Amino acid sequence: MSVTRTWRPIAAFVFVFILAVPLHGLAQEEAAGKPAPSNVRGKEFPKIHPDRRVTFRVTAPEAQKVAVVGHAADSGMNGNTPYEMKKRADGTWEVTTEPVRPGFHYYELIIDGHRTTDPASQTYFGWAQQTSGLEVPDPELDFYDAKDVPHGEVRVRWYRSKTTGEYRQAYVYTPPGYDSNPKLRYPVLYLQHGSGEDQTSWTRQGKVNLIMDNLIAERKALPMLVVMEQGYAVKAGLAAPGPAGNSAFGELVISDLVPMIDSTYRTLDDRHQRAIAGLSMGAGQALQIGLANLDRFASIGSFSGGGRAFDPKTSYGGAFADSATANKKLDLLWIGCGTGDRGYAGATSLHQALDAAGVRHSWFEGPGSHEWQVWRKHLQDFAPRLFRGSVGKKTL
Amino acid sequence: MSVTRTWRPIAAFVFVFILAVPLHGLAQEEAAGKPAPSNVRGKEFPKIHPDRRVTFRVTAPEAQKVAVVGHAADSGMNGNTPYEMKKRADGTWEVTTEPVRPGFHYYELIIDGHRTTDPASQTYFGWAQQTSGLEVPDPELDFYDAKDVPHGEVRVRWYRSKTTGEYRQAYVYTPPGYDSNPKLRYPVLYLQHGSGEDQTSWTRQGKVNLIMDNLIAERKALPMLVVMEQGYAVKAGLAAPGPAGNSAFGELVISDLVPMIDSTYRTLDDRHQRAIAGLSMGAGQALQIGLANLDRFASIGSFSGGGRAFDPKTSYGGAFADSATANKKLDLLWIGCGTGDRGYAGATSLHQALDAAGVRHSWFEGPGSHEWQVWRKHLQDFAPRLFRGSVGKKTL
Predict the structure, then answer these.
(1) Minimal CA separation from B121 to chain A, in Å
(2) Res B390 pLDDT > 50
(3) pTM
């Protein structure tokens, strides 16, 4: 009963894993390497070679031992085994990796045992701190590139949450034409990041605005707002919020965020025009908040979530206990996971249990692990399916 | 002939420099300390004590030597002399500084000689890399706090520059009411950061949006757009841009940025409604670009710039050679500098030479060095003076 789409591994994707480091032509490749797009402007290293090996270079003349390490076991940078760097005559340290997977990878330097950022790289909020990131272009994909199409904006919106008693930030993507069509109203996707990330992550790591600009330009997705909140929320007056303290996030979304967005932007205040999705921790938040508030949300997306035991009769407050009711209430239930994700078995079993229970949903699987390149592809598949129901068609 | 405002040193400001480290009551103060507002959410350290001493704590069990250092000689954190940290029984390292100046200070950790970021702190683009920052609240000032007033937005705007051949980002502050008044048009301030900073700096370090929100709520400043560009620009086809490569920035502003802003936002396309200002390197850019393009800009602000030899007859293409002409063309020429800034003598001599030449201008001096707290105060004084000329009054 599910609409299944399996991502076909493209040749280039396999290629990088079977390519041996070439023993000739290194000098030319060295010269042909390009600074990573994630570098600080003007920095030569990290440098990406045509075969996607990456050379890191670090200035640390007093250090005894320097290494570079991918931050996740499955990011493609040699797992999470550090690459030891070699000291050069000029006091810098250098290493060239094997070919690295296209996409975005968190990484760290290890200076005499201390894990830290690479000053040559931009930093990205991930792993609950500002972390270096390596963007490796994918020659086969351009759906998240900046192109000559009309561009929307990402707006930094301050607002006050009564739930937490704080001033908080939401990032709000507005589509091209939002300002020039002041009578048009838009559907809204609430889109959450993963644990240890924040409201900036979907824009900076995920390139949400460029993905949406391109989908909208190609008329593959409807123009919509995308709201990204910082995701952690503890009730006012409770203990100081920790990075994982998100017990009040559902209340914040319903009581503070949705009303603020609907009163600040030209939205369509209608459950059929409001979706909630997220990745990893955000996938859990989307399922919990969305399914507990089906009067507000008719579309839900789970990107690389799952892992919890799922019982269609009792889970999520029994939202799936009667499949006919669930199918009537949900315009879109979308579930996706990378086949290399440790949560893949959990996501698959959720998908299969929903299938067995007769709950209509989209299922998306493809190569990749728990990483941003997968989530970019998830958004690329998910966003075009949103707000296409009869109500959506009628309204827009 | 200049309108002079001298900032009176407030008692608290002097207080922090003469306060001896108290030898009693340390335990209570330790408990009363609060995490710095610039910390990563949920991180206890850096912790600011009521007397503004700051405790830093770092986990680096394998390191031999750990220190923390302010990034600028005059930031108030013991100059740029590192504070050596002491290893504790649990493997963390700690130090408590003397009382630190209110405001924003870049800082670094030094782990076995390697300067790097503090994982407990947010990072800010400064010194041509992502750098840790310490925000120390000022109990005497709230003009840059988030308050219960209508909030504008900061919009991340992608656009294509023909000058450099790149996709680039500008950050655009739009005032409260911009969306709800779709027929209103607004004046524009182009506002540039300093060397080694970028388009994010005025928002993140400078709190431009909160300053403008508060000034507009108090009706001290007119609603306006504030455009912040990344500031480095090299002609397409020339060598790879370095962090200091800004030879084509003037051309980019005139040929690409201003036309993009005027065609994308509801601006008043009129020299009386367009200003350019900046700090440090950006002050030089504002003076050079503004004075060379008086058909586009009638208001110019120089925050902590100067230092070049100035000759009223020949400098800036002779824009001040005839003071009557200059006074006619310039609605506002604003020059400010901290008395503790190494560029103070240069800024003062520019101010005096303009006075002697009979060029009308605003002059603002006050305590502080080459630092963001000074630039926040500059903006607070500068923005209310903008677009108040006869044409501005007529149009708005």
Answers:
(1) 8
(2) no
(3) 0.91
